[in-house]
Predict the structure.
Amino acid sequence: MAIYAIGDIQGCYSSLMRLLDKLQFTPEKDTLWIAGDLVNRGENSLATLRLLKSLTGSIIAVLGNHDISLVAIHHGLLKSNTTLDPILQAHDREALIEWLCQLPLLHIDKTKKICMAHAGIPPQWTIAQAHHYSLEVQQQLQGKNKKAWLANVYGNKPNKWSKAQKNEKDRHRYILNAFTRMRFLSTTGALNFKQKTAPHKHKHKNLIPWYNFPKRNNKDYCILFGHWASLGYYQGNDVIALDTGCVWGGRLTAIQLDSPAAKKPLISISC
């Protein structure tokens, strides 16, 4: 029995299959954690989604920004693209979208003191607070009025938690952005969505990777996240970054969470 964690798949079905084969993944006894962005840009998002849905019970996946966008596209709120069109034209479209909507924004393993969110967890939040806020948004995604809710949740403001708490719409927008789009913060703690380069390459002195923010309130858990392809595989400061840019010609990376050698990544062929 093994527990593996991998980064963003983004529809790279063939790479996923090769990685599972390399891991000798057995659904009956193994578990796969996936750090979000299951679909978009890769060669076969439909097959990826169908495979992961079929593995329900053997996988733990969190929602990424591309997964949320697929739900919004399904409801006519955003335009589709050629990599997502096959899902929208599929006979099992409704079932796939509904399955996606049941996924959480945050997964917590209290025994291992490990949690997983697509982009990470804002430094202002404790793990308990993050869990509470994730459930608040998750309830909206799983409700009957998700289309109306999604229509109001897109946007970059407010970008500070102190300002987001004034009303429900602002709070939900910030929570969703934090869990699925966060990379850098300003020195005052504001989310920055423009800068996507790796921390060692960016030239903005006033931006800090969220996991390096001073006095982070969630360092009692190891946080697994994806989303940041330019960052690549990174382990330090109580976090592990798993997006190694498979869809951009990089690799799909896995670590074994229940192994003493968990720090050593296992890597598949590039997408």
